[in-house]
Amino acid sequence: MGRSFVVTNSNDNNLGAKKKTVGRQIVIGPNAIKFVTLTIIAVLAIVYLNQSTAGASRSLKIRDIEGKKSELILEKERLETEQTRLKALKEIDSGVQKNTLEPVSSVQHIQNGTSGIAQAN
Fold first, then answer.
1. Would you say the C-alpha torsion 44, 50, 53, 55 has a positive or negative sign?
2. Which of 19, 68, 69, 96 gets the highest tally of CB atoms within 10 A of its CB?
3. 51-89 in b/e burial notation, b at 16+ Cβ within 10 A?
4. How do residues 22-44 score in pLDDT, each as one tens digit?
5. Which tens digits make up the pLDDT trace of 84-117?
6. Rounded to 5, what percent of the chain is helix, strand, coil?
7. What does pTM read for this prediction?
């Protein structure tokens, strides 16, 4: 047969009766309480530092994005000014091309004293 003698935590020695072989009591002494308290404080400190570092890195990212945004706004304004300038130059150039001079068929020189004046026909 198997084991006939089992050391148990119960006061019952009957064979076939369910017995508890392992106690369910946990005894915590003063050193264990200190260790558990310090462990909980350390875990909370690590969580706090993690959150504060994440918040700082988010604020740095936001600051970088806002800086890029302001640079892009300035670049947009510069490009709009350049576009307006180029449109004005294009309009000036098209106005000059419309008022082209006519070719001269013949030139007549008029002698008026010592200087000569040319007259186009």
1. negative
2. 19
3. eeeeeeeeeeeeeeeeeeeeeeeeeeeeeeeeeeeeeee
4. 666 667 788 889 999 999 999 99
5. 999 998 888 777 666 566 677 776 666 666 565 6
6. 55, 10, 35
7. 0.42
